[in-house]
Amino acid sequence: GAGVSQTPSNKVTEKGKYVELRCDPISGHTALYWYRQSLGQGPEFLIYFQGTGAADDSGLPNDRFFAVRPEGSVSTLKIQRTERGDSAVYLCASSLIGYNEQFFGPGTRLTVL
Amino acid sequence: DAKTTQPNSMESNEEEPVHLPCNHSTISGTDYIHWYRQLPSQGPEYVIHGLTSNVNNRMASLAIAEDRKSSTLILHRATLRDAAVYYCILNLAQGGSEKLVFGKGTKLTVNP
After folding, report:
1. Is the pLDDT of residue B95 over 50?
2. How far is A16 from chain B, CA to nearest CA, in Å?
3. What is the mean pLDDT of residues A58-62?
């Protein structure tokens, strides 16, 4: 079956611009996570959705970052007024509630010039 | 938050067993021990998890110390495709969020 997909695979933008990153989770997975990974580091948690609601957004670095999941399936991570420090690979994962295994997508590489 | 400590890197030869250690001395009684791996240019991939007892699956085995302060991921016969960064993670299931807190992991190199 299809795994977690993320689009675009690469995104180059200029400082100050707005970007949206999309995640399509595995069908039927009610839990969805966003992480970001800087070069040489492990992934860092950003936000967790149970269904449509954000159950834990403690990892969002500031109010320039926002994520939605309006119908409990596809999620969009939105970054306003991008900064060079936002450059990273943004990873999405999904899982069934109550199961320990998270399935990760291939990530979106964001480069802010 | 409970943390894990892993060696930065390890090397192995193809078709030999590999033992990847992880220390987690501040683990709490309800924390599960998870292992994920990340191949180059890919997202992390689940390997195995356990609570108290040793666990086996088709990918690997997980040996957990009796006091749960350490664990070892065992790859029984390393292949070139096992070259990856391996992460040992304690599942912080607080308030319903099962977020994973990754460290830097162990970079495993497999020599042919």
Report:
1. no
2. 27
3. 95
